[in-house]
């Protein structure tokens, strides 16, 4: 049986300054599509994403938290890398997207045009920045049962994601972050702060709902070339004129489940090669922590330690 190629596409939290720069300098096809997207984005927003992404005064250790460029930079990197793989004959039979990664997946599948997707990315950033309260986001190394056993967690934070059975992503408002971090320390809960300033997948995104849904309603969508599996639904989703607003809103509002999605993917694409096109190879990292059997081969290309 022929192996099926699957692209794994992540979202906010995977970004860092200078991501993809080595590939940009060495791969003319990748560079062309990064430049093309930057040109299109600049015509929409009036500024360059690459100028900020490749800013020589910034280093990879600095948090890349400016949503007005980081949101677009993640999209551009993943889209250009996906096209580069296809240009080399690695064509996906399926795409798995998380959050912003779902929008990348729909664009790679040609359900949404590149110009419309970049407009959406820019407007999303603008609306969220203007409408939503500042938030913090953390990876914590705890189970769901542990999360609900700590009232300081489930009462004052919201679940963003269950990445595996012993690792969660949670969010809180910035005003509560100092108290929360002290709670982590007191309870000896290991945590990592992500470079995200807004509460994606939580109630703190609700102030942007009406404006975002109006934005999504204007999108033209077409039948896709490849099926898209959502880490939110843990199943294949199809976008059309009837469901586009609800689907695109839920993609950034509802929690997502990485391990469950990967197991669902195994069920749909049993003999498959996985290609992690996220900027920090987050799927590759997760797969090492999850027993998916020895049939899975995953390729990754970018990380802050390689670029």
Automatic annotation (TrEMBL):
The keyword Transferase applies. It comes from the Bacteria. Keywords: Transferase. Residues 8-305 form the Malonyl-CoA:ACP transacylase (MAT) domain. The keyword Transferase applies. InterPro entries: Ac_transferase_dom_sf, Acyl_transferase_dom, Acyl_Trfase/lysoPLipase, Polyketide_Synthase. GO terms for molecular function: transferase activity. This is Malonyl CoA-acyl carrier protein transacylase.
């Amino acid at each position: 049986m022929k192996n099926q190629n699957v692209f794994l596409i992540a979202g906010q939290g995977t970004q860092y300054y200078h991501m993809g720069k080595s590939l940009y300098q060495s791969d003319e096809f990748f560079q062309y599509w990064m430049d093309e997207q930057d040109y299109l984005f600049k015509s929409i927003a009036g500024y360059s994403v690459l100028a900020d992404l490749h800013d020589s005064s910034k280093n990879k250790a600095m948090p890349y938290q400016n949503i007005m460029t980081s949101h677009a930079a993640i999209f551009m990197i993943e889209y250009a890398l996906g096209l580069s793989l296809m240009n080399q004959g690695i064509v996906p039979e399926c795409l798995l997207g998380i959050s912003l990664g779902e929008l990348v997946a729909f664009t790679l599948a040609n359900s949404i045009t590149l110009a419309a997707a970049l407009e959406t990315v820019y407007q999303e950033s603008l609306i969220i920045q203007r409408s939503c309260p500042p938030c913090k986001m953390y990876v914590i190394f705890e189970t769901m049962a542990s999360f609900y056993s700590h009232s300081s967690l489930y009462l004052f934070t919201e679940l963003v994601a269950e990445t595996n059975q012993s690792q969660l992503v949670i969010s809180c408002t910035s005003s509560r972050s100092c108290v929360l971090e002290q709670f982590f320390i007191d309870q000896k809960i290991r945590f990592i702060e992500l470079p995200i300033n807004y509460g994606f997948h939580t109630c703190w995104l609700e102030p942007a709902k009406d404006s975002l849904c109006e934005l999504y309603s204007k999108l033209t969508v077409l039948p896709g070339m490849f099926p898209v599996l959502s880490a939110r639904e843990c199943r294949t989703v199809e976008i059309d004129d009837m469901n586009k607003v609800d689907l695109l809103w839920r993609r950034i509002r509802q929690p997502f489940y990485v391990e469950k999605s990967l197991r669902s993917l195994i069920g749909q694409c049993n003999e498959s090669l996985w290609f992690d096109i996220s900027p920090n190879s987050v799927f590759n990292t997760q797969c090492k922590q999850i027993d998916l059997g020895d049939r899975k081969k995953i390729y990754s290309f970018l990380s802050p330690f390689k670029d």
